[in-house]
Design goal:
Distance between the termini of chain A: 34 Å
Bound molecules: adenosine-5'-diphosphate, magnesium ion
Order of helices and strands of chain A: EEEEEHEEEEHEEHHEEEHH
Structural class of chain A: alpha+beta
Number of helices of chain A: 6
Strand content of chain A: 25-35%
Helix content of chain A: 25-40%
Largest interface: A-B, 23 and 23 residues
Shape of chain A: globular
Number of strands of chain A: 14
Number of domains of chain A: 2
CATH architecture of the largest domain in chain A: 2-Layer Sandwich
Largest sheet of chain A: 7 strands, antiparallel
Oligomer: homodimer
């Protein structure tokens, strides 16, 4: 029996017998608005596990340092253990209703360069937006490291745009997390899936991401299936 | 009759017959929590008008560029007209309950260097916190100008700490606004008063600012009178 280290909203985290490796086990739960909206979708865990694996394998070819090792089965993947930096890094290539609500920036606004935002990863505080100075107060990230995170984030954005472009999806925005591995290096961690990206079909303009659940505008499983199918056709 | 250009929560703004000069007329209204809490205090306008005048006259001696020209009477002051940059610049030398609520930073935390935050001056959006990139999207402020605003802000903080120290007050935090004058220069505008500063008596640790109204912990007029009296004794 593996030791359960943490159960989050979307995944369970297990310690393996190697000190610096974990298993991320993707759950079928969907949550939105910091857990205020909840539902179960049988098969969602599998989609996010497999889609995330496709993404990270691509990021290897783009020389992005990351935690992913391999998928073990439909819902589980092996990753390098990191100590997670408690910042949710949000990258926006285009505005969306959430930015419109917060700052009044119109939904069709395009950001070039991409707009990068830090949020403090803290459910009790509702993941508040923070600035660079808050990062230094709230985490052990140095000025040089924050700059490194910023540069890496822009590289990841470019890589992800290319990745999703292959399956005719436009990347509107996404959320990533970084952690420090056992060598102290900052590497991309967590997941990259339709739970954490806003994706739009380049031709039909259909939204293919968790917004169908957040906004109640479509069937989550159908949409995640479309993405996985396109990725499997590709490879 | 002067033309009323704008009526805000705390002041009325009149155009004078000189194109680049305004009259700020301080009202007796107190508001908190973006106008959700309201009251009238006869004499408050006078206190803020006169206290602000003392502050800006001191800032002249510290070579801070600002809009203040002179007081005209108990409630009115003449200032250079600026086009206000829609950013509320907040400077924190120490934490407070609001930062504690937002980020969980303990109330007695001391910030050295001071923590500087930008908020988008927009009542309809509830003056949201923004980062540098949001500033560039939402205003016409350039990167160089934002840096200039930041440096000027630190200078103003140091000057204000010295100013209030003369009357045995510690400056916990404050909010300022900048505008562009007719020559295009960025200068300190608006007011600096117990409405916009958190001030603590260095010895008794009593709060001498609008928090007594916000929190319902004291009499606003008594507290503002104490500050004005100390300033008048000084000069
Ligand atoms: N490589 C890693 N090492 C350690 N923790 C990780 C790694 N990758 C992701 N995590 C963390 O594991 C948890 C995954 O579970 P999730 O359901 O996403 O949690 P949450 O509800 O906190 O978002 C997250 O807290 C995430 O920060
Ligand atoms: N020198 C100036 N030139 C033009 N506008 C100014 C100047 N100084 C302050 N203001 C603006 O005048 C208004 C003052 O009224 P106030 O009651 O403080 O308004 P608010 O409710 O917007 O805070 C503010 O909107 C402020 O930005
Ligand atoms: Mg998560
Ligand atoms: Mg004001």
């Amino acid at each position: 029996m593996l030791e359960l280290l943490y159960e989050g909203k979307a995944k369970k985290v297990y310690q393996t017998d190697k000190e610096d490796e974990l298993i991320l086990s993707y759950k079928d739960d969907a949550t939105a608005f910091n857990g205020k909206k909840k539902a179960q979708f049988t098969g969602k865990g599998r989609f996010n596990n497999l889609i995330t694996a496709h993404v990270f394998r691509y990021l290897t070819t783009e020389a992005i340092p990351h935690h992913f090792i391999e998928t073990l089965n439909d819902t589980d993947q092996r990753v390098y253990k990191t100590s997670i930096i408690p910042i949710e890094v949000v990258v926006r290539n285009r505005s969306s209703y959430s930015l419109n609500n917060r700052l009044g920036i119109k939904e069709d606004a395009v950001f070039e360069p991409a707009l990068v935002e830090w949020f403090y990863k803290n459910d009790a505080l509702n993941d508040p937006l923070i600035n660079d100075q808050h990062v230094f107060l709230l985490t052990d990230v140095s000025k040089e490291e924050l700059n490194q995170i910023y540069e890496l984030t822009l590289k990841i954005n470019n890589a992800l745009k290319r990745f999703f472009h292959q399956i005719n999806l436009d990347l509107i925005d996404f959320k990533i997390e970084f952690g420090r591995n056992s060598a102290g290096e900052i590497i991309l961690s967590d997941e990259i899936s339709p739970d954490t990206c806003r994706l739009e079909d380049s031709y039909t303009k259909q939204h293919l991401d968790k917004d169908v659940f957040r906004q109640g505008t479509g069937n989550l499983l159908d949409v995640y299936q479309i993405i996985l199918s396109r990725l499997e056709e590709l490879s």
